[in-house]
Design a protein that fits this description.
By secondary structure, the chain is α/β, with parallel strands linked by helices. The protein is built from 4 helices and 6 strands. The radius of gyration is 16 Å and the shape is elongated. The structure holds nicotinamide-adenine-dinucleotide.
């Protein structure tokens, strides 16, 4: 796929880590980039440092995602690339004394 100034890219979790690295790469290729992240403070910093659009979105909430999509389509246009990096990384025993694994959180976040 040829990436140009006409390529609209959405990066979820783009305020930090893997997502931020993806944002930087697409910006360096000249694409129009929008970031969804629930961390507004870091997201706004990334927006101002890299000249990208930012929307405070919780990817586990369908309404939040729908609102975010409407908003970014007004700024960068219809996205043709979406890189999902929003996430939480933790490891936990499936079964342990007195504490259950946080399956509900994982399902809400990733399914
Ligand atoms: N870093 C690694 O080496 C690595 C390896 C394998 C998998 N992963 C997975 O990739 C994902 C990103 O890892 P990372 O190291 O970049 O983490 P990170 O914590 O640096 O970045 C994750 C970003 O996602 C955002 N986020 C979290 N939940 C969100 C939600 N519900 N809605 C919107 N934004 C949300 C956070 O605010 C944060 O900015 C995680 O799921 C992690 O488990 C990371």
């Amino acid at each position: 796929m040829k990436i140009s100034e006409n390529t609209a890219v959405l990066v979820t979790g783009g305020a930090s880590g893997l997502g931020l690295a993806v944002v930087e790469k697409f910006v360096s290729l000249g694409a129009k980039v929008a970031v969804f992240d629930m961390n507004e403070e870091e997201g706004l910093k990334v927006a101002s440092q890299h000249g990208v659009s930012f929307e405070k979105v919780d990817v586990s909430d369908p309404k939040s995602v729908a609102d975010g999509l409407s908003s970014i389509r007004g700024s960068i246009g219809q996205e043709s690339v979406c890189v999902n990096c929003a996430g939480i990384g933790f490891s936990q025993k499936t079964v342990s004394k007195g504490r259950n694994h946080k399956f509900e959180l994982l399902i809400k976040q990733y399914v």
